Amino acid sequence: MNQPTSSVGNAQLQRGTFCTRQLYPWHWIISALDLFGLLRFRRHAAPRRPVAVTDMAASESPATRDAGDIRGIEARPADAMLRVVYASQTGFAEQLARQTAQSLQLAGLPTRMIGIGDLALDDLRQAGRVLFVVSTTGDGEPPDMAQMFSRKLMQQPASLAGLHYGLLALGDSDYEDFCGFGRQLQRWLQASGAQALFDPVEVDSEDDASLRHWQHHLAMLGGAPDLPDWQAPKYQRWQLVERRLLNPGSVGEPCFHLAMKPLEGRADWQAGDLAEIGPCHAAEAVAAWLAARGLDGRVVVPFGHRERLPLATLLARCRLPEPGEVDGLDEEGVAAILQQLPHRAYSIASLPRDGTLQLVVRRMRARGGYPGLGSGWLTEHAPIGAEIALRVRSNVNFHAPRDARPLVLIGNGTGLAALRALLKQRIAVGRTRNWLLFGERHRAHDFLHREDIERWIGEGAIERADFAWSRDQGERIHVQQRLREAGDELRRWVDEGAAIYVCGSLDGLAPGVDAALCDVLGAGQVAQLREQGRYRRDVY
To answer: Which domains does the chain have, with CATH numbers?
Structure first.
């Protein structure tokens, strides 16, 4: 999968990647007032000491309800436990929720993490303070684990006048409904009478500025301005060892099989996990930018606390500033204002036992015809043998079932990457009740990894396969049509305990498959499958 940090072109790079509110002077005044109110509250609080972070499964001791917020509300008898509620699709929101809980623990605040699927309305009514960390999947939709909460609790306002909350919403501004679920949750909380501790913080593709702003609020909430900064996971050094065109002659954009090896140590991952790539600009683009400003890319400049790099090397990893941003600056002055490029995430198409980490990446074109940031780097600019900044991120929501239940795998385009890894994992342990439904343009040109799939079909490792080649006939045919045609068989598989995994495009595949499943199985059963973890999606 190409995560919702989808590739963008140079036009977007030039305008930056951040989507965070500017902190104008009056914001700092408010923050100072907030801190005053917070310190007043802290004098009534329990002595500062480490408190274990617990989860929903732990029993909760009785306590009086409601707590003062950071705006100076009078301290009242309170439920001392602060809840951190997360709604995660790929695991990133859960990761941030855990970091949030740990920061609050360091500040001496009793903290409990709760998955939103385990959250009842009474929990919110009894809680004094709750911090929500929620992602958006698809085009403004709740993560799968939040579907029941959204459907059963958020359809009408509740009575939450005693609740004080904070909200961290994760999204991608490349999508029309940016932070869609976070904003839906915000509107519902407001309509329900809950009071915000601070303005919602929206994060665009994991940008550091917004996350630092959230950490500032946590420090204020805990009365601990000395809380350590969160450290983003460091990239590992990998080498690009293979790049192979998968769709020669296609009318679509070229699609590539890529393989990489770690340059140090070894890496481990599971089928369904993601590779986060630190992209770079083409060397030619960096050289042109330096020449236009009369700067020497060979000058060694500081980067971070310890690293020193040639300016050209550093620029390749960072947003290229606009001309007006660097007027009058020398090489070190330019280095001081640089912002690192955001990562791009792709589904891993292989297993560690294959010897390489493999991806399926389509070269995207953005505004102006420029190659996308991540896809351009991997498929065009990086030469074979180039060093690639990469880190593996677990995507637990898309891991294969642990048991031998049947698996229905539905995808299109580069969504085949994650499905290929899932099939590899299942086949390796002898689980052959696999049904693949895959769609692309032309069978002759767009049958990605055809050799693998046809071999697995021939060996009986894929029990059933249905393909939708949309342009091989006059009438367009898509995967959801094949799904409807096989409705009786689908119902049998589901009755036998099958899980359904979907990976591919947001605009076409995801809503079409969802509608087809509802037509065949009924909306109620689809909702039940989702709640049981038997209907999982990784769409972009």
So the answer is: 10-222 (3.40.50.360), 236-393 (2.40.30.10), 400-539 (3.40.50.80)
